[in-house]
Structures are given as structure tokens and as C-alpha cells.
Amino acid sequence: MQFDFFPSKTLTIYLAKLFVVRVLAVLLMLVLVLQALDLLSQSSKVLAYEGNGQAELLRYIGYRMPQLVARFLPYSVLLATIVTLMTLNQNSEVVAMKAAGLSAHQVLAPLLLAAMVVSAVSFAFNERIVTRASAALSAWQAVDYGPVPEESGVRTSVYLRDGDNILAARTLSGEGDAMRMAGVEWFRRDAEGRVVETISAPRATYASPGWLFEEPLRFDVASAQQVPIDPVLIAKGVSPRQAELGKIDPESMSITQLGAAIDELSDSGRRTAELESKWWHKLAGPLSALLMPLLGAIAAFGLARSGQLFMRAIIAMLLGFSYFVVDNAALAMGNFGAYPPFVAAWAPFLLFLLIGETVLVRTEE
């Protein structure tokens, strides 16, 4: 019986290479299929803007593909784990390794090591590429796939409180007194919270204080009439700093940027539970790849000739997909404030780590 956690160097490299190749193959297959389906559903919207063509479709693919890679990498690791372990089992390689004195944990150790590397790469990929692609795609979609303002820090779908009233903008660009809004609307509400008047404009600039609506249209709810009016100054209580903090998109921000935004919102007395859950999940999410070899381990053991190999693969798949369901549910509960942010992000990971380890020990060790 060997007491080292890893088997021999040759066997470790063999198993790790086998596993990584299958992860990449499954990921490539999933991303290509899903990208094709996504492009079919979005191409009409991209081409609807006058002047857009093949270059814009390729640009959309460039923005969307990193999101698909990040989202489906854990699923790819799960499927690759099941395929790899089933193949080893069918070829009696697992039987040979156990006959040589390796424990179930030693058989899985190379896969866990490779999955740890995949988790680290996934975290770096999310921080350096996915966040930038998400921010660029959101800004592009906000202008209906037209020209995006060149200013840095473009935000989309911004909603701000102006006392009892609401100031909304399709995009927000620029910084400080040079900040500008596009597709802007102001909703005036009465004491009972009902909207009684709206003023919309294609553009608004900060007038220190207030926002100057250019070419505005006024809609009176009572008379149901819309009329053009002169440029008007609105929302004097909304500052550029409030506008910057009015729309935080965790998917478009790195973990350091999101942490700084959370601190600023917390100092201003704003609720940050949802953002804190997303912050913790930026760490816990990539680690889901580390769980997959453990949850899929049941497919590696048991005699292939017993006829139970297919059932074991189904159980492994159910365990893996159950983790993603519970993880999404916990994150949603954290967003609503039902769970503390740390618990919402890490509880599913720790729970299924214990489940996977328990199943492995009880069945194989």
C-alpha cells in the first residue's frame, strides 16, 4: 500500500494529460455549439443597425465567447471527469491501479491536481478577459449594437433616486462634470408613488448642479399627451458621484474593482449584500472545477462487467448538476438577503465537498 497522496510520476502525468485533453475537447464542443445557437438568435439584432455586417458579427462572437467559456467550463470539467473515469474503468485500468495498491484518493489525485490548475486559470481568465468582454458587450448592446461612446467607464441601464422621483439612463459615460447620459428619462411621482409625468431626452449633460435635458419630450399621464419642450434642468440632487455608484455590474468588474465599489457604497449607507455575495462568488465559482472529479468519482469504480457502470455515470452526473442548482439557488438567496454573503457563496461548495468525500469513502475506501 502506498502512503503518498500521488501515485508515480508517470501515472500522474498520464492521468492528468488524459483528463485535461478531454476537458478542452468537451469545452470546445460546448462553446462552438452554444455560440452558434446564440449567434443565430442575436445576429438579426446585430445586423439591424444600419452599416453592421460580418465584422460586427465577428466582434459579437469575440465579446460573447469568453462569457460562454467562463460559464460552461465547470460543466466541461464534470463531463470530462465522467468520460475519463468511465474509459479507465471500462479498460480495467482502475482495477490495475487498485491492484497495485493505490487507494481511491490516489487514483483521483492527478485529476484533482489538474482541476486545481483549471480553477486557477479560470479565475485569471475571468478577471482579465471575461470582465472586459462583459463590459464591452453591455455597452454595445445598450446602444443597439451601434457606435459606443469612446469615454472610459461606460455604464448601462442606470437608475437613480431623485427624492421620490426616478432618473434613468440607457448609457452613462464620462467622469465628473464631463459626465453624459444617453436615452435619459425622468419620472415624477406623487405622494402615493404614482408616476404623473415623464420627461425623456436623447441626451443629458451635467450642469453642476442638475442634468440638462436636450431636445426633451414631456408626457403628462393625466392627459396622455406628449409634447416637445425647451431644454430643462432636472434632478439637481443627483451628483456625478451618485451616478457612478448608481449602476454596479459585478460581471463587468474585477474582484478588486468590485471590492472598492462595495466599500464606497457601504460608506454611503447603501445596501451591499448582493454585491458582497457576488464578490465572494468570484472566488468560490472557479473552485467548482475542483469539485467535479470528486463528485464524478463514483463513475471510476465498481466492476464494468457488472452492468452498473452506466448507472454510476448517471449518479455522478446528477451529483455534479445538483451542485450547480444549489449554487445558483444559494446565490439568489444571498441576493435577497436571506443568507449572509459568505454563506451564500461558499456553503454549496463546502456541502458538496463533504457529500463527494462521504460517497467516496463509504463506497471505495
TrEMBL record:
The record's Gene Ontology cellular component field reads: ATP-binding cassette (ABC) transporter complex
GO BP annotations of the record are: lipopolysaccharide transport; transmembrane transport
Q: Which domain of life is it from?
A: Bacteria
InterPro entries reported in the protein's UniProt record: LptG, LptG/LptF_permease
Q: Where in the cell is it found?
A: Cell membrane
Can you tell me where the transmembrane regions are?
Answer: 12-37, 68-87, 107-125, 283-303, 309-326, 338-356
Keywords associated with the record: Cell membrane, Membrane, Transmembrane, Transmembrane helix
The annotated topology with respect to the bilayer is: Multi-pass membrane protein
This protein is called what?
LPS export ABC transporter permease LptG
Q: Which organism is it from?
A: Alteriqipengyuania halimionae
Lineage, please?
Bacteria, Pseudomonadati, Pseudomonadota, Alphaproteobacteria, Sphingomonadales
